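User: Design a sequence. Structure:
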């Protein structure tokens, strides 16, 4: 019991240590394994707006078919403890054996994926702050081992808000310089079974970078691509609503990237577009990452445009004193002391020319 409590406190400290997302997840898994043993793991980050996966940590590389079955189950099949349902039900951790009343064969995921892998029980968690999900976790045990207990699920549930904080903070802008990347959009053409038909040089660049970030096979499709295509198929099948699926992610080169997907007219082929994110794509995510309120986000946008206190107050129909009160709260959350520092922290060189093009005036 003392070891479990010590490990929990150590993991909480890690969540607030400022580690990058991958390093944080790797270190957390090392410690979590001491308390909750597992044989297979899937630890993802997600875009909080779409719940699509943006990166994964897998301590052991699964068979090539595994991720396709996993995503098909999550997006296209009814099953127990799906991440979307856990978020909707505000359930931070769930055990498959308990949810199926110890009849795990009732789960299609168990039949189609876990059994062929030689796995038995599954413990899932989602990492949520302020209704925004920043990541997901699956822990699997081999069939010969005992199932997960309610106590283990409760232990993990206690950690989920702290892990959510760590994943959220890992998205905050850092001081590292951004590397040069293609200026033009990348276009990737896939068949329905996700075989690559064609890719522009820009798409090849992003595929290589995303594969390296995941430390995956150089021929494998990166998880964000697979996720956004799975969402498209879910919409087409009526399992999900929406129009053009997209996912935002932060790349190792320091850039924010947006992936869009659509199906070519009268064709079985699928098009994936890679684009450097525009300010309108990333601003809501940054507001969430800094935990700014809607009003604080509006004022931050005005500050980034160079508006004065009087202009902000007139535009938002609030007094100058109220603007100053909000600015103080914003400075505290972003850990800056002036408008210039705020702009430097959020308004990076990547977005400045785009932002001025979108908001040329103050009308």
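Assistant: Done.
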């Amino acid at each position: 019991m003392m070891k479990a409590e010590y490990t929990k406190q150590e993991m909480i400290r890690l969540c607030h240590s400022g580690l990058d997302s991958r390093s944080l997840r790797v270190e957390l898994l090392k410690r979590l394994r001491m308390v909750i043993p597992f044989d297979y793991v899937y630890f993802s980050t997600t875009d909080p707006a779409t719940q699509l996966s943006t990166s994964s940590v897998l301590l052991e590389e699964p068979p090539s078919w595994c991720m396709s079955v996993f995503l098909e189950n999550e997006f296209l099949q009814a099953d127990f403890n799906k991440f979307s349902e856990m978020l909707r039900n505000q359930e931070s951790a769930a055990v498959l054996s308990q949810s199926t009343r110890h009849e795990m064969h009732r789960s299609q995921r168990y039949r189609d994926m876990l059994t062929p892998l030689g796995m038995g029980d599954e413990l899932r968690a989602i990492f949520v702050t302020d209704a925004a999900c920043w990541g997901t976790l699956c822990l699997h045990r081999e069939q010969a081992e005992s199932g997960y207990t309610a106590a283990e699920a409760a232990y993990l549930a206690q950690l989920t808000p702290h892990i959510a904080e760590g994943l959220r903070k890992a998205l905050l802008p850092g001081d590292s310089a951004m590397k040069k990347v293609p200026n033009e959009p990348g276009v990737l053409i896939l068949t329905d079974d996700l075989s690559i038909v064609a890719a522009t040089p820009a798409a090849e660049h992003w595929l290589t970078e995303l594969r390296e970030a995941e430390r995956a096979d150089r021929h494998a499709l990166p998880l964000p691509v697979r996720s956004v295509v799975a969402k498209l198929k879910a919409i087409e099948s009526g399992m999900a609503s929406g129009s053009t699926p997209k996912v935002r992610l932060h790349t190792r080169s320091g850039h924010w990237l947006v992936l869009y997907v659509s199906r070519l007219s009268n064709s079985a082929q699928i098009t994936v577009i890679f684009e450097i994110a525009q300010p309108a794509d990333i601003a809501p995510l940054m507001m969430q990452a800094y935990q700014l309120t809607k009003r604080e986000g509006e004022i931050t946008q005005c500050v980034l445009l160079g508006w004065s206190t009087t202009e902000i107050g007139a535009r938002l129909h609030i007094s100058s004193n109220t603007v100053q009160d909000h600015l103080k709260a914003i400075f505290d959350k972003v850990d800056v002391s002036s408008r210039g520092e705020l702009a430097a922290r959020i308004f990076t060189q990547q977005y400045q020319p785009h932002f001025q093009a979108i908001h040329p005036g103050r009308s």
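The CA atoms of residues 213 and 252 lie 7 Å apart. The chain has three domains: 2-169, 186-277, 291-358.
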